[in-house]
Structures are given as structure tokens and as C-alpha cells.
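Hallway conversation turned thread

IA: we were arguing at lunch whether anyone had actually written out Gamma-glutamyltranspeptidase end to end. Turns out nobody had. So, for the record, here is the sequence (464 residues) and right after it the C-alpha cells. Reply here if something looks off.
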Amino acid sequence: MAHRRNQISLRGSRKAGRVSFHLLASVASGLLLTACSSIPGFTSLVGTAPAPALTGSIGTVVADEPQAALVGHDVLARKGNAADAAVATAIALGVTLPSRASLGGGGACLISQPGAPAQSISFLPAAGSSAGGNRPASTPATLRGLFLIHHHYGSVEFNDLIAPSMNLASNGITVSRALASDLAVVRTALLADENARAIFGRGEAGTLTSGDTLIQPRLAGFLERVRSAGVGDLYNGALADVYSTAAQKAGGGLNTSDLRKTLPVETVALTTQANGISASFLAPPADGGLGAAIRYTTGSSAQGAVSAWRAASATDVAAAQAALDNGKTGGSALPALPASTSFVVTDRNGMAVACSLSENNLFGTGRIAGSTGIVLGASPAATPRPLLAAAILRDRRGLKAAIAASGQNDAADAVGDAARAATQGAEIAHSGAGRVNAVTCTDGNNCHGNTDPRGAGLAAGTTN
């Protein structure tokens, strides 16, 4: 099979014929959606009248942080598709969960539409090339990857998907249990940086706790600049100069050439078929997908399979598909891997998107890129690669499951086990260190969200 590999430079252009719609922005923490078609308390960012919300079954968003899930759900309610909602959710996570999903990091997404091959889009941060930094940072890959996803699959204006997050950063979010837990883990190191302390500090020696308000005006300004100048400005324009200069002052060792060379990679997904079910997985360079696929097909250790893959220094998608077809297992445990977060989105038309995001370390470098307000991701040259894993399953009736997970070394095994459970019609176990977010369906359209009850996530869905 020939595998398509596409690397492109994105400059923030708009797709002709897209429908612009008005998104609503601020969210009440912990609000659960059942039969609501819009979110109480949201205010329109642009124009005077928001587009009419859909009613009935519109799809589901499941994420580790509730406010970001609600942003994505509102996109679905206002006629965006799963790709639109995934982009909005990922950007919102950069505001509501900057410990794991800062816009200074990256990730990978699996996209599946009915009747079309699933695609894997990886937007992995690169290491900086400037010497002398004492806190080596990664390049900010997330926005370029999200723009590529939107370019191929989105149905509304990209700028409208940035607007809710800009408003959240400006008006403030409620610190969730997920963010508060991460802040408690890194409190001492984070407070050592003046800029980070100004954002996340609480008093002389504490960090924000669950229920506190977090306002990020600099991040709001950065998002407004991206809205007005386009995503390409961060990689090829004046904003690239601002970001790289700020990163160097923070010890990150980035320059504008590093940002220009940060490109997303699109390939076909890894696939396997058995018992009438077609399963798709993230493809390399997001190699957690291979581990999850091996776990799904053989029951062997996903971590071991990825360890063997990395030891072989393999990168080609065709080689990964061959390893999956051959059921190649083995390998030892991986070193301690970086933190990540995951989310999944489905829509009323059967499109599904499953994503995993990371900064290559909890709170990345622990430093802020100056006036942008962005937490700098950690350089991949200084840390092991995270396990980014996701799967989407379909049968003849339609979508069966969309699954993604975090949990450091156990993320890929958790995806594989959840996929096996979905195939068998069993409940997802939510055991072990892996944390699964999933949407599972019966009869192709009766779907429900499922998030790990041990976490602080939210499954936001609407039913008839």
C-alpha cells in the first residue's frame, strides 16, 4: 500500500465558501450537558445574534478538562462538525489545561469520516537549534497542526474557533481539579519563574487551587494576534520574532528558523480488520498508535512494541503497518514518559476525531514565552517522546468507537484495551494508570461519551 505523506507550510488562509458562525465563550466549571442545545452564561463574541443552535443528537466531546469540552460541544451545537469542534477544544485546552496542552507543545489527531480512509495528522514539536539555553524548549507545533486539520476537514471559519478561547483567557476560567492537581505537583519549580508565578501563583508560596479564577490577558492578546494576522504569523511573520525572542530570554534556545521548519505530517492511519470491524490507529511519527494497535490485535504490551520500534529507529508508516500486520511484539519497558492529555469528538454525521496532546513534560519548561503568555514546551532533545495514542473503530452500521488516552507509559495499552472492550461490546474498564476518553456507539448512531471516573474530565453530549 502506498502511504501519503504531506508536509506543508501554512500561512493562515481561509477556505472559500466556509460559513462563518458566532461562537459563545465563557463556561461554568463542571456544568453537565444532557439535552441542552447551548450553554447558559455564554456571551457572543462577534456580531449581535448567534447562529441558531441545533437540537437533538449533535455529537459528543469527551476531554480531561470540562471547560474545554464545553467549548467543543458548543461548536457542535452551532453546526460545526467534529473537526471544527476538535480544533476549538484543543485551543481551549491551551487556556484551561496549560500544564499538558499549552500552545507551546504539540500532539497528534486521528480523523475518520464515513466511507473514507482514516487519516493521521501529527504535529510534533521540534528541538531548538540555538545554543546556550538553560531550559531547552520545543517549537510550538499545535496551531500549525490544528490549522492543517481545519484546512482539510473544517466547515466554519478558523477564526471563530479561536474566539471562545480568547474570551476564556481574557475573562478568566475557573481552575479545574485537573489543572489544580498539576499545579500542586510542580508548585516549587513553577513559582521559581517570575512570569509563571505571575500567572499561576497564589500568595507568597502557593499556586492556584480548584475553584480559583485564572485570568491570562497576555495569552488572550496572543490569540487575538493569531486571529487577526493568521496562524502563519507565528511561523513566518512578526509573531515568530516575538515568540523566538521571548523563548531565548526564558532560556529556550529557539529561533525563527526553528519555527519555520515546524511542519505537521499527514499520513494514512494504521489499520486492521477482523470480525467485520475496521480499526484505525494513529500512525508514526505518533508511534503510540502502533503500540495501541499491537495491544488491540495481539493483547501484547503496547509499551514493549513501541520500545522495539524506537530501538530500531524506524519511522516509515509502511514499516509500521507491516509490523502491525505481522503482529510484531517484544521490546522492554520505556523510560518514564512525559505527561499528556487526550480528547475525542464525534458529530451527527459520523465524523470522529481522537487526539492526544503533550508539552513533553508537565508544564513543559516551566517558563513562559514572554508577552505571549504561552507555557514553553520542553525540547524533545531533552526528554523522551510521549506516547500519543488514539483509535477509531467502525463496522458496517457506522461508527463503533473513538478512543484516546493519557497516562504516560500506559497510554497506548489503555487505548488498545479500550478498543478490545468496544469490539466485544463490553464496558471500558478504567483500570491501571492509563486514562481513557472515549465515545462508544451501538447501531452506528446511538453513542455515549465515557471518561475515566478517577479523573476530572467531562463527557458533553446531547441526546434526543
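OS: looked through it. Residues 68 and 93 are 6 Å apart (CA to CA).
IA: good, adding that to the notes. The two ends are 42 Å apart (CA to CA).
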